[in-house]
Amino acid sequence: MTFTVILLVAFSIVLDVIGQLCFKLGLDRLPELEGGFRLNAFWGQVFNAPLLWCGIGAYTLEFFVWLEALSRAPLSLLFPAGALAYCGVVLAGKVVLGETVSRRRWLATLVITVGVMLVCAGHA
């Protein structure tokens, strides 16, 4: 993997994590609806939530970064490397959102990381 591809994948992962954080924070800040779930009121809230739009923006930018990475390296290498976004989301959930992460989830995150390292080392 070239240095440029590594930077593109890393940027894609960061954008994915930012997008997920924006979605979670944006939804958590929406006011609760009285009288149960009302789809029209919910969508009105969603369209007026800046953090949700930031998440959409992060995903849009990530789409173009990902396309550039795909133009430079095999999908069989990039897609497993992109799985590191799952690890980033777990870490961001703990650090930014204060979520409780069990030992089992940390272990699974480590397994994903080791798996990505094995896939990437096979393409060296």
Automatic annotation (TrEMBL):
Membrane topology according to the record: Multi-pass membrane protein
Ranges that cross the membrane: 43-65, 77-97, 103-121
Keyword Transmembrane helix: yes
Gene Ontology molecular function, alphabetical: transmembrane transporter activity
Keyword set, alphabetical order: Cell membrane, Membrane, Transmembrane, Transmembrane helix
Gene Ontology CC: plasma membrane
Database matches in PANTHER family: 4-AMINO-4-DEOXY-L-ARABINOSE-PHOSPHOUNDECAPRENOL FLIPPASE SUBUNIT ARNF-RELATED (PTHR30561:SF9), SMR FAMILY PROTON-DEPENDENT DRUG EFFLUX TRANSPORTER SUGE (PTHR30561)
Name the UniProt record assigns to this protein: Transporter
